[in-house]
Amino acid sequence: MSGKGIRIEGLRKRYGEGDTAVNALKGVDMQVAPGEVVGLIGPSGSGKSTLLKCLGAAIDPTAGRMTLGDEVIYDDGWKVRDLRALRRDKIGFVFRAPYLIPFLDVTDNVALLPMLAGVANGESRAKALELLTALDVQHRARAMPSQLSGGEQQRVAIARGLVNRPPVIPADEPTAPLDSERAMAVIRILNDMARKFETAIIVVTHDEKIIPTFKRIYHIRDGVTHEEAGEGREFE
Ligand SMILES: Nc1ncnc2c1ncn2[C@@H]1O[C@H](COP(=O)(O)OP(=O)(O)OP(=O)(O)O)[C@@H](O)[C@H]1O
Predict the structure, then answer these.
(1) 226 lies in some domain
(2) Residue of 12, 14, 23, 46 with the most ligand 1 atoms within 8 Å of its CB, for mutation
(3) How remote is the CA of residue 188 from the centroid of ligand 1, in Å?
(4) pLDDT tens for residues 128-141?
(5) Where is the ABC transporter domain (predicted)?
(6) How far away, in angstroms, is 14 Cα from ligand 1 center?
């Protein structure tokens, strides 16, 4: 794979030591190209969250290799000096709940990340507005999060995930709180955004409504993944 995208090879994660150790990931392989949205599906306790957290540098894997674009970021140990910058600039998490900051308006919720990365306030807000416009929620730019519908809040959360143009977005059940129509809208948006910004998106989901939309699915069971073609059903 050239350019962006993510490749995971032989990733292992063990929690704890000795008799009580849990081998949550037992050698996971995964590759997601720029512009691609893949599903990650598996029963409770199969290792989905652990995989997303390793991918997001929120926890340390035990072994394996992860390559982001052309950069090896983990090879039996982190190869990146500044993990905070990696999380902030390269990985755009989208969670199942929007987790917007209640005392910041919509624009500042999205602009905060570039501001933290040192981008001037005006430019950060312009970037935020560009994303809010792409997600068709620009008319709520000055509203507070509590004034938005659930679907609008999730679109703002997606804008925040995308604002630093990360090459990879792990999305943890991004449609869980939404009804069928809004869930499909969010998946459509993730696909559009993946193509537009060449982002590799990994969607953990239990949501039967959206599973048929994936062209590729990774099934995870007991810490091991296997890949399968999905239906790749078009959005009506
Ligand atoms: N901090 C931890 N310490 C010890 N064991 C853990 C820890 N976090 C997760 N585990 C264990 O690792 C395994 C994988 O957990 P993980 O949370 O990744 O599963 P999951 O597929 O995301 O589950 P769910 O769908 O229920 O959220 C489970 O056996 C879990 O009990």
Answers:
(1) no
(2) 46
(3) 29
(4) 999 898 888 999 99
(5) 6-236
(6) 10
